[in-house]
Amino acid sequence: MAMANRDGLELVGDRSTLVILRNLVNGKAKIADFLAGPEKITTNIWASRLSQMEDNALVIKQPYQSNPPRHSY
Known about the structure:
The chain is α+β, with helices and mostly antiparallel strands. It has 4 helices and 2 strands. The chain has a two-stranded antiparallel ribbon. The radius of gyration is 13 Å and the shape is globular. The N terminus is likely disordered.
């Protein structure tokens, strides 16, 4: 059990992931919403963290536009 908690903390313990979680809880769901914030986190960091969170079933990526493809979380 302690190992699972440690793994969870490692996943959400960095600043960028915590900012994403805060934004999601506050109703932001799109990359553009995240980029508009005051955090100054680059697009590649947002994409990387969201991908990790999706891989670990913390978020679900859903298409909202097909051309060009765009997703919300």
